[in-house]
Automatic annotation (TrEMBL):
The lineage of its organism: Bacteria, Bacillati, Bacillota, Tissierellia, Tissierellales. Keywords: Cell membrane, Membrane, Transmembrane, Transmembrane helix. It comes from Anaerosphaera multitolerans. It is a multi-pass membrane protein. This is Putative basic amino acid antiporter YfcC. It is found in: Cell membrane. It holds the Pfam family DcuC. PANTHER family: ARGININE REPRESSOR, BASIC AMINO ACID ANTIPORTER YFCC-RELATED.
Amino acid sequence: MEKTKKKFKAPDALVLIFSLLIICSILTYVVPAGEYDRYVDETTGIEMVDPESYHNVEQSPVSLWQLLMSIPKGMNESAGIINFLFIIGGAFGVLQDTGTLDALINKVVKKLKGRERLIIPFFLVFWGLGGSILGNFEECLAFVPMQIMLCLALGFDSIVGLALGLCGVCVGYMGAIMNAFTVAIAQQIAGLPVYSGMGFRLVVWTVLLITAIIYIWNYAGKIKKDPTLSLMYEEDKHSKYRDQQIDDVDFTRKHIAVLLSFLVGVGVIIYGVIVHGFYITEMGAVFIALTVVMGLLGGMGLNGTVDSFVKGAHNLLYACICVGFARALTIVMADGKMLDVIVHGVTGVLKGLPAIISAPLMFVVQAIINIIMPSGSGQAVVTMPIMVPIADVLGITRQSAVLAFQMGDGLTNLFTPTGAPLMAGLAIAGISWGKWMKWFAKLFFAWTVIAIIAMMVAVSIGYGPF
Protein backbone atom coordinates (compact mmCIF):
# COMPACT_ATOMS: atom_id res chain seq x y z
CA MET A 1 0.00 0.00 0.00
CA GLU A 2 1.49 3.34 -1.07
CA LYS A 3 2.17 5.77 1.73
CA THR A 4 0.65 9.23 1.39
CA LYS A 5 3.30 11.92 1.36
CA LYS A 6 2.82 14.52 4.03
CA LYS A 7 2.78 18.01 2.60
CA PHE A 8 5.27 20.40 4.25
CA LYS A 9 3.51 22.95 6.38
CA ALA A 10 5.26 26.25 7.02
CA PRO A 11 5.71 26.92 10.75
CA ASP A 12 3.34 29.26 12.52
CA ALA A 13 4.76 32.76 12.96
CA LEU A 14 5.02 32.37 16.74
CA VAL A 15 6.73 28.99 16.36
CA LEU A 16 9.21 30.52 13.91
CA ILE A 17 10.00 33.49 16.17
CA PHE A 18 10.35 31.34 19.30
CA SER A 19 12.70 28.99 17.42
CA LEU A 20 14.83 31.99 16.44
CA LEU A 21 14.79 33.16 20.06
CA ILE A 22 16.24 29.82 21.17
CA ILE A 23 18.91 29.89 18.43
CA CYS A 24 19.93 33.47 19.29
CA SER A 25 20.09 32.60 22.98
CA ILE A 26 22.41 29.64 22.27
CA LEU A 27 24.64 31.85 20.09
CA THR A 28 25.17 34.25 23.01
CA TYR A 29 27.13 31.43 24.68
CA VAL A 30 29.27 30.85 21.58
CA VAL A 31 29.83 34.19 19.79
CA PRO A 32 32.41 36.47 21.49
CA ALA A 33 30.59 39.54 22.80
CA GLY A 34 31.59 43.02 21.68
CA GLU A 35 30.31 46.57 21.34
CA TYR A 36 31.04 50.08 20.10
CA ASP A 37 31.33 53.13 22.33
CA ARG A 38 28.49 55.61 21.97
CA TYR A 39 28.27 59.34 22.51
CA VAL A 40 25.71 62.12 22.04
CA ASP A 41 26.43 64.51 19.17
CA GLU A 42 26.28 68.05 20.60
CA THR A 43 24.96 69.54 17.34
CA THR A 44 22.09 67.13 16.62
CA GLY A 45 21.48 65.57 20.03
CA ILE A 46 21.54 62.13 18.38
CA GLU A 47 23.32 59.22 20.08
CA MET A 48 26.15 58.19 17.73
CA VAL A 49 28.53 55.25 17.42
CA ASP A 50 32.31 55.74 17.42
CA PRO A 51 33.36 53.61 14.38
CA GLU A 52 36.89 53.07 15.71
CA SER A 53 35.83 52.00 19.19
CA TYR A 54 34.79 48.36 18.67
CA HIS A 55 36.12 46.14 21.45
CA ASN A 56 35.40 42.80 23.05
CA VAL A 57 33.47 42.82 26.30
CA GLU A 58 32.66 40.25 28.93
CA GLN A 59 30.45 37.45 27.63
CA SER A 60 26.77 38.04 28.36
CA PRO A 61 24.98 34.73 27.70
CA VAL A 62 21.19 34.79 27.73
CA SER A 63 19.80 32.24 30.18
CA LEU A 64 16.52 30.37 29.79
CA TRP A 65 14.94 32.75 32.33
CA GLN A 66 16.15 35.80 30.38
CA LEU A 67 14.83 34.27 27.16
CA LEU A 68 11.40 33.82 28.73
CA MET A 69 11.56 37.33 30.22
CA SER A 70 12.34 38.79 26.78
CA ILE A 71 8.79 38.02 25.63
CA PRO A 72 6.91 40.13 28.20
CA LYS A 73 9.65 42.76 27.82
CA GLY A 74 8.99 42.70 24.08
CA MET A 75 5.28 43.14 24.72
CA ASN A 76 6.02 46.11 27.00
CA GLU A 77 8.39 47.77 24.54
CA SER A 78 5.90 47.23 21.71
CA ALA A 79 2.96 48.57 23.71
CA GLY A 80 2.52 51.52 21.37
CA ILE A 81 2.04 49.48 18.21
CA ILE A 82 0.06 46.78 20.07
CA ASN A 83 -2.39 49.36 21.42
CA PHE A 84 -2.64 50.90 17.95
CA LEU A 85 -3.46 47.51 16.41
CA PHE A 86 -6.17 46.83 19.01
CA ILE A 87 -7.71 50.26 18.36
CA ILE A 88 -7.74 49.97 14.56
CA GLY A 89 -9.08 46.42 14.84
CA GLY A 90 -11.93 47.72 16.96
CA ALA A 91 -12.56 50.68 14.65
CA PHE A 92 -12.81 48.43 11.60
CA GLY A 93 -15.05 46.07 13.55
CA VAL A 94 -17.48 48.95 14.04
CA LEU A 95 -17.13 50.10 10.42
CA GLN A 96 -17.91 46.60 9.19
CA ASP A 97 -20.88 46.08 11.50
CA THR A 98 -22.52 49.27 10.25
CA GLY A 99 -22.78 47.49 6.89
CA THR A 100 -20.85 50.32 5.20
CA LEU A 101 -17.95 48.13 4.05
CA ASP A 102 -20.27 45.56 2.47
CA ALA A 103 -22.19 48.30 0.65
CA LEU A 104 -19.00 50.06 -0.47
CA ILE A 105 -17.32 46.88 -1.70
CA ASN A 106 -20.47 45.87 -3.57
CA LYS A 107 -20.47 49.28 -5.29
CA VAL A 108 -16.75 49.12 -6.13
CA VAL A 109 -17.06 45.60 -7.54
CA LYS A 110 -19.84 46.79 -9.89
CA LYS A 111 -17.91 49.89 -10.98
CA LEU A 112 -14.70 47.97 -11.66
CA LYS A 113 -16.23 45.00 -13.46
CA GLY A 114 -13.71 43.95 -16.09
CA ARG A 115 -11.14 46.45 -14.74
CA GLU A 116 -10.62 45.00 -11.27
CA ARG A 117 -6.83 45.22 -11.37
CA LEU A 118 -6.92 49.03 -11.44
CA ILE A 119 -6.91 48.96 -7.64
CA ILE A 120 -3.31 47.68 -7.77
CA PRO A 121 -1.56 50.81 -9.09
CA PHE A 122 -3.91 53.01 -7.02
CA PHE A 123 -3.01 51.45 -3.65
CA LEU A 124 0.68 50.94 -4.49
CA VAL A 125 1.14 54.57 -5.54
CA PHE A 126 -0.78 55.75 -2.46
CA TRP A 127 1.30 53.72 0.01
CA GLY A 128 4.49 54.23 -1.99
CA LEU A 129 4.14 57.99 -1.61
CA GLY A 130 3.14 57.64 2.04
CA GLY A 131 6.26 55.59 2.85
CA SER A 132 8.57 57.73 0.73
CA ILE A 133 7.45 61.17 1.88
CA LEU A 134 5.70 60.70 5.25
CA GLY A 135 7.51 57.61 6.53
CA ASN A 136 4.28 55.60 6.79
CA PHE A 137 4.70 51.90 7.58
CA GLU A 138 2.63 50.70 10.55
CA GLU A 139 -0.13 53.01 9.32
CA CYS A 140 -0.89 50.71 6.37
CA LEU A 141 -1.87 47.93 8.80
CA ALA A 142 -5.03 49.87 9.61
CA PHE A 143 -6.27 49.35 6.05
CA VAL A 144 -5.20 45.73 5.52
CA PRO A 145 -8.60 44.25 6.53
CA MET A 146 -10.45 46.53 4.08
CA GLN A 147 -7.94 45.82 1.29
CA ILE A 148 -8.27 42.05 1.81
CA MET A 149 -12.07 42.23 1.84
CA LEU A 150 -11.99 44.24 -1.38
CA CYS A 151 -9.51 41.90 -3.08
CA LEU A 152 -11.49 38.78 -2.17
CA ALA A 153 -14.68 40.40 -3.51
CA LEU A 154 -12.88 41.32 -6.76
CA GLY A 155 -11.69 37.74 -7.28
CA PHE A 156 -8.12 38.08 -6.00
CA ASP A 157 -6.68 36.63 -2.78
CA SER A 158 -5.55 37.78 0.66
CA ILE A 159 -1.90 37.94 -0.46
CA VAL A 160 -2.79 40.66 -2.97
CA GLY A 161 -4.74 42.53 -0.28
CA LEU A 162 -1.76 42.49 2.09
CA ALA A 163 0.81 43.20 -0.64
CA LEU A 164 -1.00 46.37 -1.75
CA GLY A 165 -0.06 47.91 1.58
CA LEU A 166 3.23 46.26 2.54
CA CYS A 167 4.84 46.37 -0.92
CA GLY A 168 3.76 49.99 -1.32
CA VAL A 169 5.40 51.18 1.90
CA CYS A 170 8.45 49.02 1.17
CA VAL A 171 8.91 50.84 -2.15
CA GLY A 172 8.49 54.07 -0.20
CA TYR A 173 11.31 53.17 2.17
CA MET A 174 13.67 51.72 -0.45
CA GLY A 175 13.23 54.73 -2.73
CA ALA A 176 12.67 57.20 0.11
CA ILE A 177 12.42 60.69 -1.37
CA MET A 178 11.83 62.70 1.83
CA ASN A 179 11.49 60.09 4.62
CA ALA A 180 12.32 61.90 7.87
CA PHE A 181 12.88 58.62 9.76
CA THR A 182 15.54 57.25 7.41
CA VAL A 183 16.98 59.57 4.76
CA ALA A 184 16.91 62.74 6.87
CA ILE A 185 18.65 61.10 9.85
CA ALA A 186 21.20 59.26 7.66
CA GLN A 187 22.05 62.41 5.69
CA GLN A 188 22.36 64.42 8.89
CA ILE A 189 24.84 61.89 10.29
CA ALA A 190 26.75 61.85 6.98
CA GLY A 191 26.99 65.65 6.98
CA LEU A 192 24.94 65.97 3.79
CA PRO A 193 22.29 68.63 3.10
CA VAL A 194 19.00 67.09 4.25
CA TYR A 195 16.94 65.68 1.35
CA SER A 196 19.74 66.37 -1.17
CA GLY A 197 20.03 63.96 -4.12
CA MET A 198 16.24 63.75 -4.40
CA GLY A 199 16.15 63.38 -8.19
CA PHE A 200 18.08 60.10 -8.30
CA ARG A 201 16.01 58.65 -5.44
CA LEU A 202 12.83 59.55 -7.33
CA VAL A 203 14.07 57.52 -10.31
CA VAL A 204 14.85 54.56 -8.02
CA TRP A 205 11.40 54.87 -6.39
CA THR A 206 9.68 54.89 -9.80
CA VAL A 207 11.53 51.79 -11.06
CA LEU A 208 10.81 49.87 -7.84
CA LEU A 209 7.14 50.89 -7.94
CA ILE A 210 6.64 49.87 -11.59
CA THR A 211 8.28 46.51 -10.84
CA ALA A 212 5.89 45.91 -7.92
CA ILE A 213 2.84 46.92 -9.97
CA ILE A 214 3.78 44.53 -12.81
CA TYR A 215 4.49 41.66 -10.40
CA ILE A 216 1.25 42.00 -8.42
CA TRP A 217 -0.76 42.78 -11.58
CA ASN A 218 0.35 39.51 -13.21
CA TYR A 219 -0.24 37.45 -10.07
CA ALA A 220 -3.70 38.96 -9.52
CA GLY A 221 -4.60 38.24 -13.15
CA LYS A 222 -3.69 34.57 -12.76
CA ILE A 223 -5.75 34.28 -9.57
CA LYS A 224 -8.71 35.97 -11.23
CA LYS A 225 -8.65 33.41 -14.06
CA ASP A 226 -7.96 30.39 -11.85
CA PRO A 227 -8.44 30.86 -8.08
CA THR A 228 -6.83 27.46 -7.37
CA LEU A 229 -3.45 28.95 -8.33
CA SER A 230 -3.56 31.11 -5.21
CA LEU A 231 -1.17 30.11 -2.43
CA MET A 232 -4.03 30.94 -0.06
CA TYR A 233 -6.81 29.16 -1.99
CA GLU A 234 -7.95 26.85 0.83
CA GLU A 235 -7.54 29.44 3.60
CA ASP A 236 -9.36 32.16 1.66
CA LYS A 237 -12.40 29.94 1.11
CA HIS A 238 -13.08 30.19 4.84
CA SER A 239 -11.54 33.62 5.47
CA LYS A 240 -13.22 35.94 7.96
CA TYR A 241 -12.76 38.64 5.31
CA ARG A 242 -14.72 36.72 2.68
CA ASP A 243 -17.69 38.75 1.47
CA GLN A 244 -20.76 36.64 2.21
CA GLN A 245 -23.23 39.01 0.55
CA ILE A 246 -25.15 37.38 -2.32
CA ASP A 247 -27.81 39.97 -2.98
CA ASP A 248 -27.08 43.56 -3.91
CA VAL A 249 -26.51 45.84 -0.93
CA ASP A 250 -27.95 49.33 -1.27
CA PHE A 251 -25.59 52.19 -0.47
CA THR A 252 -27.89 54.16 1.85
CA ARG A 253 -27.61 57.61 3.42
CA LYS A 254 -26.51 55.93 6.64
CA HIS A 255 -23.62 54.26 4.81
CA ILE A 256 -22.69 57.55 3.11
CA ALA A 257 -22.62 59.33 6.49
CA VAL A 258 -20.43 56.62 8.06
CA LEU A 259 -18.07 56.59 5.07
CA LEU A 260 -17.77 60.39 5.06
CA SER A 261 -16.94 60.37 8.77
CA PHE A 262 -14.27 57.73 8.10
CA LEU A 263 -12.76 59.79 5.28
CA VAL A 264 -12.74 62.91 7.48
CA GLY A 265 -10.92 60.90 10.16
CA VAL A 266 -8.32 59.75 7.62
CA GLY A 267 -7.97 63.36 6.48
CA VAL A 268 -7.34 64.47 10.08
CA ILE A 269 -4.66 61.78 10.41
CA ILE A 270 -2.93 62.84 7.17
CA TYR A 271 -3.02 66.49 8.26
CA GLY A 272 -1.72 65.56 11.70
CA VAL A 273 1.16 63.49 10.30
CA ILE A 274 2.26 66.25 7.90
CA VAL A 275 1.74 69.32 10.11
CA HIS A 276 1.98 68.07 13.71
CA GLY A 277 4.11 64.91 13.38
CA PHE A 278 1.36 62.49 14.44
CA TYR A 279 2.50 58.93 15.14
CA ILE A 280 0.62 55.85 16.29
CA THR A 281 -0.53 57.27 19.67
CA GLU A 282 -2.10 60.35 18.08
CA MET A 283 -3.54 58.27 15.23
CA GLY A 284 -5.00 55.87 17.79
CA ALA A 285 -6.75 58.80 19.48
CA VAL A 286 -8.30 59.82 16.14
CA PHE A 287 -9.50 56.25 15.54
CA ILE A 288 -11.10 56.17 19.03
CA ALA A 289 -13.11 59.30 18.26
CA LEU A 290 -13.90 57.96 14.80
CA THR A 291 -15.19 54.69 16.29
CA VAL A 292 -17.76 56.52 18.44
CA VAL A 293 -18.91 58.72 15.55
CA MET A 294 -19.24 55.79 13.11
CA GLY A 295 -21.15 53.70 15.64
CA LEU A 296 -23.65 56.47 16.37
CA LEU A 297 -24.11 57.43 12.70
CA GLY A 298 -24.53 53.75 11.86
CA GLY A 299 -27.40 53.44 14.34
CA MET A 300 -25.58 50.98 16.59
CA GLY A 301 -25.92 52.90 19.84
CA LEU A 302 -23.20 53.05 22.49
CA ASN A 303 -23.56 49.44 23.68
CA GLY A 304 -23.62 48.08 20.14
CA THR A 305 -20.57 50.15 19.25
CA VAL A 306 -18.65 48.78 22.24
CA ASP A 307 -19.61 45.18 21.36
CA SER A 308 -18.40 45.60 17.77
CA PHE A 309 -15.23 47.37 18.92
CA VAL A 310 -14.31 44.53 21.28
CA LYS A 311 -14.98 41.89 18.60
CA GLY A 312 -12.88 43.82 16.09
CA ALA A 313 -10.02 44.24 18.57
CA HIS A 314 -10.15 40.51 19.33
CA ASN A 315 -9.53 39.77 15.65
CA LEU A 316 -6.08 41.38 15.98
CA LEU A 317 -5.08 39.61 19.20
CA TYR A 318 -2.81 37.16 17.38
CA ALA A 319 -1.18 40.00 15.42
CA CYS A 320 -0.45 41.86 18.66
CA ILE A 321 1.18 38.80 20.23
CA CYS A 322 3.38 38.40 17.12
CA VAL A 323 4.56 42.00 17.47
CA GLY A 324 5.69 41.39 21.07
CA PHE A 325 7.47 38.14 20.16
CA ALA A 326 9.25 39.85 17.24
CA ARG A 327 10.54 42.58 19.55
CA ALA A 328 11.83 39.90 21.95
CA LEU A 329 14.34 38.80 19.29
CA THR A 330 16.03 42.19 19.31
CA ILE A 331 16.03 42.20 23.13
CA VAL A 332 17.79 38.81 23.27
CA MET A 333 20.46 39.94 20.81
CA ALA A 334 20.97 43.21 22.70
CA ASP A 335 21.17 41.46 26.09
CA GLY A 336 23.67 38.98 24.64
CA LYS A 337 25.83 41.84 23.26
CA MET A 338 25.41 40.46 19.73
CA LEU A 339 24.02 43.42 17.77
CA ASP A 340 27.32 45.32 17.53
CA VAL A 341 29.17 42.05 16.86
CA ILE A 342 27.04 41.45 13.77
CA VAL A 343 27.45 45.06 12.58
CA HIS A 344 31.24 44.88 13.05
CA GLY A 345 31.46 41.52 11.28
CA VAL A 346 29.41 42.37 8.19
CA THR A 347 30.91 45.83 7.68
CA GLY A 348 34.40 44.31 7.83
CA VAL A 349 33.91 42.61 4.44
CA LEU A 350 33.77 45.98 2.67
CA LYS A 351 37.32 47.07 3.41
CA GLY A 352 39.88 46.81 0.62
CA LEU A 353 37.39 46.24 -2.22
CA PRO A 354 37.03 48.48 -5.32
CA ALA A 355 34.14 50.96 -5.21
CA ILE A 356 32.14 49.33 -8.03
CA ILE A 357 32.00 46.11 -5.94
CA SER A 358 31.94 47.53 -2.42
CA ALA A 359 29.05 49.93 -3.16
CA PRO A 360 26.54 47.14 -4.01
CA LEU A 361 27.95 45.14 -1.09
CA MET A 362 27.28 48.12 1.14
CA PHE A 363 23.59 47.74 0.22
CA VAL A 364 23.73 43.98 0.95
CA VAL A 365 25.37 44.64 4.33
CA GLN A 366 22.65 47.15 5.27
CA ALA A 367 19.97 44.65 4.22
CA ILE A 368 21.53 41.97 6.44
CA ILE A 369 21.83 44.34 9.40
CA ASN A 370 18.17 45.31 8.96
CA ILE A 371 17.19 41.69 9.59
CA ILE A 372 18.41 41.96 13.18
CA MET A 373 17.83 45.70 13.62
CA PRO A 374 14.55 46.51 11.81
CA SER A 375 14.27 50.11 13.00
CA GLY A 376 15.14 52.58 10.23
CA SER A 377 16.18 55.44 12.51
CA GLY A 378 17.92 53.07 14.95
CA GLN A 379 19.83 51.40 12.13
CA ALA A 380 20.92 54.78 10.75
CA VAL A 381 22.32 55.82 14.14
CA VAL A 382 24.29 52.57 14.50
CA THR A 383 25.50 51.95 10.94
CA MET A 384 25.97 55.35 9.29
CA PRO A 385 28.83 56.48 11.59
CA ILE A 386 30.59 53.26 10.49
CA MET A 387 29.59 53.36 6.82
CA VAL A 388 30.57 57.00 6.22
CA PRO A 389 34.29 56.54 7.03
CA ILE A 390 34.33 53.28 5.02
CA ALA A 391 32.77 55.12 2.06
CA ASP A 392 35.36 57.90 2.34
CA VAL A 393 38.25 55.40 2.34
CA LEU A 394 36.83 53.42 -0.60
CA GLY A 395 36.12 56.52 -2.70
CA ILE A 396 32.34 56.10 -2.54
CA THR A 397 30.29 59.28 -2.12
CA ARG A 398 28.49 59.70 1.19
CA GLN A 399 25.25 60.15 -0.72
CA SER A 400 25.76 56.64 -2.16
CA ALA A 401 26.30 55.32 1.38
CA VAL A 402 22.94 56.85 2.38
CA LEU A 403 21.31 55.27 -0.69
CA ALA A 404 22.73 51.86 0.30
CA PHE A 405 21.35 52.33 3.81
CA GLN A 406 17.81 53.29 2.74
CA MET A 407 17.48 50.50 0.15
CA GLY A 408 18.90 47.88 2.52
CA ASP A 409 16.67 49.10 5.33
CA GLY A 410 13.58 48.94 3.11
CA LEU A 411 14.16 45.61 1.33
CA THR A 412 14.34 43.22 4.27
CA ASN A 413 11.43 44.90 6.07
CA LEU A 414 9.27 42.42 4.16
CA PHE A 415 11.55 39.48 4.97
CA THR A 416 12.69 39.60 8.59
CA PRO A 417 10.70 37.86 11.35
CA THR A 418 12.02 40.54 13.72
CA GLY A 419 9.98 43.15 11.83
CA ALA A 420 6.85 43.93 13.84
CA PRO A 421 4.85 45.45 10.93
CA LEU A 422 5.48 42.41 8.70
CA MET A 423 4.57 39.87 11.38
CA ALA A 424 1.50 41.90 12.37
CA GLY A 425 0.40 42.18 8.73
CA LEU A 426 0.80 38.44 8.16
CA ALA A 427 -1.17 37.71 11.33
CA ILE A 428 -3.96 40.10 10.32
CA ALA A 429 -4.19 38.44 6.89
CA GLY A 430 -3.84 34.90 8.24
CA ILE A 431 -0.85 34.23 5.96
CA SER A 432 2.08 32.14 7.18
CA TRP A 433 5.60 33.55 6.87
CA GLY A 434 6.53 30.60 4.63
CA LYS A 435 3.71 31.25 2.16
CA TRP A 436 4.47 34.95 2.12
CA MET A 437 8.13 34.29 1.31
CA LYS A 438 7.15 31.82 -1.41
CA TRP A 439 5.08 34.57 -3.05
CA PHE A 440 7.49 37.43 -2.30
CA ALA A 441 10.75 35.66 -3.34
CA LYS A 442 10.71 36.70 -7.02
CA LEU A 443 9.84 40.31 -6.23
CA PHE A 444 12.53 40.30 -3.52
CA PHE A 445 15.07 39.12 -6.11
CA ALA A 446 13.94 41.72 -8.68
CA TRP A 447 14.19 44.54 -6.14
CA THR A 448 17.64 43.29 -5.08
CA VAL A 449 18.88 43.41 -8.68
CA ILE A 450 17.45 46.94 -9.12
CA ALA A 451 19.15 48.08 -5.90
CA ILE A 452 22.52 46.64 -6.97
CA ILE A 453 22.27 48.35 -10.37
CA ALA A 454 21.26 51.62 -8.65
CA MET A 455 24.37 51.42 -6.44
CA MET A 456 26.63 50.77 -9.43
CA VAL A 457 25.10 53.72 -11.29
CA ALA A 458 25.48 55.92 -8.20
CA VAL A 459 29.21 55.11 -8.05
CA SER A 460 29.63 55.68 -11.79
CA ILE A 461 28.02 59.14 -11.76
CA GLY A 462 29.57 60.23 -8.45
CA TYR A 463 26.13 60.61 -6.87
CA GLY A 464 26.50 63.56 -4.53
CA PRO A 465 26.91 66.41 -3.73
CA PHE A 466 29.69 64.39 -2.08
